[in-house]
Structure formats: structure tokens, C-alpha cells
Fold these 2 entries.
Entry 1:
Amino acid sequence: MTSPTAPNERLTARVHGRVQGVGYRHFVWTRARRLGLTGRVRNERDGSVAVVAEGPRPALERLLEALREGPPAARVERVDATWGPAAGAFDDFEIRLW
């Protein structure tokens, strides 16, 4: 069980597959905001999508599960994820351009 005073964490993920041009960023934005997370999502020039999210570990784990699924038109091949301490760098969750 998570302590109410547990520190926030940071999830950094790179999503590979058919994830651009299929509503993936909006899908991530919607899920992250629903989960009360802060951070950003953006398309990368190599065709992947980068996600940085901060918040409680259980919410971040739910977001990671959603990243692996994606919206109906996406085809997620893999998600590379790393964990670390939250930096408190975000006020909300946003979609970024390049």
C-alpha cells in the first residue's frame, strides 16, 4: 500500500511503432490528465513518441499500461521506460510539438 506522503516519481518513456498520425499524443494527454499526472508528450523525428510524466507510482504504472496499448489506430511495437525521482518541472500535462 502506498503511503500518502510517498514522493512522486518520474516515468520517461519512448513509444515505438505506428504511433504518429493516429491520435496517440491526444490519447496519452487524456489518460495522463485523468490520472492527475503532470508532464509532456511529443512526437520525435524518428517516428516514435516521447513521454515524460510525474506523479504517484501507481498512477504512472497505469499510464505505462495505457502507453503499451495506445488508441485503436496505433500499433505499439515496444515501449522503452525508465524510472526516477520527480523533478517537479511541470505544472500540468501538455502536448508538445517537435
Entry 2:
Amino acid sequence: MDIPKNYKEIIEKSIQGEWHLLGNRNAPPFLLWLKMLALNSDEMRRIYGTTVTGAVIYKDSFIKFYFLSDTFKEVIKSATEILFSENKAKGQLDQVLILQDYARKKAAFFLEEDLRNLSDGELWKKYEEAAACYVRPLLYGFLTWCVPVFTDYAKSILRKHFDKIVGFDVDEKTAFGILITPHERSPYSEKNEALDRLAIKYKKQIGEINGDMEDKIKEECPELDADILEFLAKYKWIGYDYSGPAIDYGEVLKDIKERSLGINIGKQRKISRDGIIEKCGFSPSEKNVFDIFSQLTYVKDARNSGDDFIHFCLIEYFFTEVGRRFGLTKEAVQFLSPGELEKMLKENKVYSEEYINEKKRCYVATTIDKEGIKKYYAGNEAEKFLNKIEKKIDHSETREFRGTVACIGKVTARVKIVNTFEELYKIKEGDVLVTHMTSPRFMSAIKKAGAIITNEGGVTCHAAIISREFKIPCIVGTKIATQVLKDGDLVEVDADKGIVRILNKS
């Protein structure tokens, strides 16, 4: 494949401003900071010829991670050259899966062993080994975040075959979504299929139980109880993200009941990926573009699910054990820097609750390497640093904004903002789900949503994949949706054009 001559121009347009906000999570900063450090490492430079300068900023219970735009553009240019080299791209993506599997095995130690039997020094050594493995899949998988040129190129292929695609009674955006669907099943898919099987198997029993279902299941349906416990042993970490909680018994039971009523069953497509490829008569080179895109989508899902497992092991077991030894919560431990964690476990250094609370108010960690700039800031110093990066914009007059189309359709409905997993209850049938980014834990709400709008993400993100599977109009990567919209706003989601219009403010 020949890389487009204007690829640098496409990249320049895709990243605006001095700082690029890549994501926002409801989580403490420790694990994201490990990743930011890795993106500024010698191994990152070896893979891409350059590194990414960034900042991790915690405030108001959310952690934001920014990249210095100029450095991010350089990595995207390097990654784009890899993507247009078939053997390099596929080889690097295969490497992500190998490294992720190894990292999972290292993290599983904390789940499987009794950590109370380890000395502080032994515990630190095991953590150090796991942390070194944890970040490596991100470095090779950074490729999945660098797709603006590859996306543009893939869509140009579809435009070339437009007359054949319309014969399927689908548009270019829908065809694109079908073509980049992964060949392989991710752990997320396996979990959903397992729930579907339980819903079918126990539909009658669940329908006959009223009242407190959990207690009655344990008493009246021991086989279902055993199957739920087996499911939790296999999948409770799915969708854990950076802070949990893990899936519990009640959540599984609720999901099985909804699926038994037909609420959460996926919709079958009449048009297949292979059907589009055959009908269009793609050349080997054109088909290869979508093969790589399909692999990108799968690898991104596989890496995210692997991270779910690693985060679950580290937070629920390692950080919990460290907290037990030093009188801190597992959350508080995650406000330490890696160096501070090392001092705790190797030198018995104790950090006060007051010290950690100052970080909880506002905390910044940055890889900027300039004279006069520190690596860590807390409290008022962190606030000042944050104000330099974030440009405060008044969105009170905003009535229309744009994003990337993930699944076409047009819906007019009321908005519900979901910032955390605990707020999913707010979504009622037909509401517009507005969030920073969806995860597998959002599925019960997604199935009820009339449309989805996210701040983050691109064509291979979770919201994009799921919306195409369930044919829910979806616009991702708006950057500002949760800032502009409020609960109860009446909006028109025009996912044919990627536009959100506010019709009436609440």
C-alpha cells in the first residue's frame, strides 16, 4: 500500500491546539501515570522513533490524560507509516496479543497467591515485574490510536466502489462499520454469549420467581446459582476499567433476567463483511486495508479486556494489601507516585492521609522535560498547572456540535449524562446516553438508549462497535458533549451527518 501523499496534512488537521485531551476516567491516577511514563520511554522511541510528552491531571474525581500535540503528531506520522506497511502492521499487532497474555499471567500472581505471606520487599519485587509487563502492550498497541490517515484511506476505497455498495441498500458509513468488524471474538463477546446462554437455559425459572430474586435463586434454583458463580469466576473482571467495581452476583442476575425477556439480545445483520468484499470485487491491496482495520479493532478490544483483568488484580489484591499494611484504602495508595510506593515497601516510609488528600484535591504528573517544570504538582500548584493546559470555554451559547459517525440514524430525545457506572440507572427506554466513553459495563443502558453520544473514541472504540451491532445511532469523539449537554436537554442526534443539535435546554 502506498501511503497518501497528503498524510501529514491529514494528521495536522486531526490534532488541534497545544494540548490534546485523549481521555477522561473516573479513577485515581496511578495506573494511567504508569502508561504515560511508558509513552516517554526508550522502548517507545525504539518502536516509533520518538516519544509522547504528556500530563495526567486528577481533579473532581476524574483523571484526564493529555498529550502535547506536537509530540503526538510525530508519533502518529510514524505509526501511519507502519500501518501502510502490511507485514510491519500485522507483526506489531500480533506482538500486542503476545505481550498482553504475558502481562496477564504476571498480574494473576496477585489474584492467586496469599500476599500476606510476602515481605514488603518481596511484594515490591512482584509488583515491579508486573508493572514492567503491564505497559508494554500499550506501546505496541499505540498503533490503534493513530488511525486518522488509515481511516481516510479506507473510506476512499468505499467511495470508489459506491455504486456496488448501494446495491446492498446501505450507505458508506454502515458498510465501513461492517468491514472493520473483528474476525475473532473478544473476551467481551464471550462474556455476552455466556449471558445469552444462561438467559435461554433459565428463562422459565427466572420468570417464575418474584420478590428478592437473589435469595430465592440460592434456595430454589441451585443449578442457576452454581452457573452464576462459575460465570463470576470467569468474567467478573470484564469492564473493570481503571477503578471497578467488579461484576457482582446481582448484576449478573439482572442481566440474565433482561436477556431472558429479549431485551439484551443482539440483532443479526443481513449483510456480511465477506458479502461486501465479494460484491465490490476489492483488489488484494484493498481487501488488505480492511483486514488490518479488522485486526486493529480486535487488538484494541483484546488489550482493553486484558487491562481490565490486570487492573482488577492490582487494585483488588495488590493495592488492597499495601493499604492494609500501611493503614490506607486501596484508592489512597493509587495517589502515590511509583517512587513513593517504592519507599513505602522498601524503606517503610509512611504517607499521611493529609498528604494524600492534598493530591485528591488536585494532582498533576507530567513528562515535560524543561527547566523550571517539576514532574509532580499537588494542591494549589497543580491548579495553576491545570489552568495553563485547559482552555476554559463558555459553552452556554452552544447549540450545535459535531463528532465522528459510528452508526447512522436520526433520533430526537432527552439527554441523560452518565459520568460513572453507578449512574447507569438513569437511562430509560429511548433516552440519549451521553458519556465520556462507554465500556462493556454500560451494556444494560446501551440496549435501552435511543442514541449514544461520547466525548472520546473513534471508529474502533467500544461505543462505535456496539452501536453498529445493535443499530443504535451513535456519534463519538465530540470532545465536549458532557460539557455542553445537561440531563433533560432535548436534542436531535443526526448520526447521518455527525451533528448534535440542542432543541430545548432543560
